[in-house]
Amino acid sequence: GQCIVACPVGALYEKESIDEVWRAISSPEKYVVVQTAPAIRSALGEEFGMAKGTRVTGKMVAALRRLGFDKVFDTDFTADLTIMEEGTELINRLQSGENLPLMTSCCPGWVKFIEHFYPDMLNNLSTCKSPHQMEGALIKSYFAQKMSIDPRNIINVSIMPCVAKKFESAREELSMEAMQDVDYVLTTRELARMIKEVGIDFVNLPEEDFDNPFGESTGAGVIFGVTGGVAEAALRTVFEILAGKELETVDYNIVRGMEGIREAQIDLPNGLTITSVVAHGLGNAREVMEMIKSGEKEYQFIEIMACPGGCVTGGGQPIINADYKMDNDIRLQRAKAIYDEDEAKVLRKSHKNPYITRLYEEFLGEPNSETSYKYLHTHYVKREKFWK
Ligand code: SF4
Description:
Protein name: [FeFe] hydrogenase, group A
Shape: globular
Keywords: Iron, Iron-sulfur, Metal-binding
Bound molecules: iron/sulfur cluster
CATH class: Alpha Beta
Structural class: alpha/beta
């Protein structure tokens, strides 16, 4: 099934962590925090017999609370934060002309692919950690300070649609003072198993809200779950920053869709034009990289997701077809759930998130500040060409 795409990068780490998470929840000295990626809400319901692409955000939060997590946070919040950091990086690189094209770095399947096969282009990757890693780092610093909790007693659990995220969370460079940003990654399927283990009647749960300060997100944070979403979220913010005023446009349909490689020429408010490309599936990623290497194409901004369709059909998501394949219908239904949630949000641009503003005021200073670099950015390593 989908694992053909997602597993080669995470196979060795495709270890279940359910027992460890139960142990953490039941130990009184541990403060156990959970966060959920944008794509989980579009698919978790399928494990409980709900129709494909039913949006279950509120029930998912209610279930996590009943499992015993001390805080239930949303990775969408740090998706908004990623846009602040990566959008600023993009503007700086466009101005300096250095390390272009800027390539997104939130998909660990793609990051590992480039580390293995195109290591001479590692400087093109955004230095932003992926959103759940940013959130993990902030929970053990900003949040721990606010709550007066010893970060060593915090256990961070991420619910991800992805098997490659298990590998990512174990990367040495994603830790500080011998503490990993994220301690355990559970897939959507593992979460469903935990909910079933304790017999929660998921379908009839009430709808509940995430906890703050990492519970509010804009529509831009939500669309990270689908191919083209990161590019669109970045455009919503970069456009307004460059224009220096509020703009009417929110939907950038030009980067949406299920076409494998989608190019777009976008005229920015400052008179510049950027050429962006969105690709999903590693075969398409390779094609894009080869076109860049040969000089056939020149881009300024590139979004790549390893899984066809993006995270909505990631390797850790429910597999509902008898032949274990994700088909286009599942992709489209789940993508629709994501776009519906985006549209239902009052705020749809990352820089409008009031909790993001507060986080910069209280802790980070400004995007790409020294503190941001300390907690939210990372680096990459050249790896052997063949899987080891
Ligand atoms: Fe994981 Fe999403 Fe990348 Fe797939 S597209 S490998 S689910 S981050």
